[in-house]
Design a protein that fits this description.
about 170 residues; 7 helices; mainly alpha
Amino acid sequence: MQLLALYWVLLQSMLTSFTGLSSLPVIRHELVETRHWIDDRELNAAVMIGRSTPGPLGVYVVCVGYFVAGYPGAAVGMLAMATPALLILLLLRVLPEDPRLKNAIRYIVLAGSAYSLAALAGMAPTALTSWWAWGIGFVSATLLLRTRLATGWIVLGAGLLGVMLK
């Protein structure tokens, strides 16, 4: 029964997001704050693993599933991540191209980004536990926002700095 509930939570988070990490607030609220199936450290680890591996941005939900229920949970996470994409493919066949629909999606993405920022603020205290962690976070955010440096290099550099400073 827990696997079905996990699938439902992850599916809801994926269906309400149009970018990979905008599903994060729903997952954090349901699995960390409400159900207590994982904690912020595990969620941070899942996001870090998902961001440092190739593939879609939402792949971190596979790690979340693993932290909740092991390999069966990871399979549920992968299924929940793939379901919306398969549904969108079906909808693209059925719905005509409508500029109002495109605008609606654009504003949903904007709202999802704001929602993600709020969830990240809640997770920050467990990830940013020292002055140098804050520094790495600040420099990483600055590089992401101000340069065209690939995200993978920024994540790799931050990880290497974290290992050297720990």
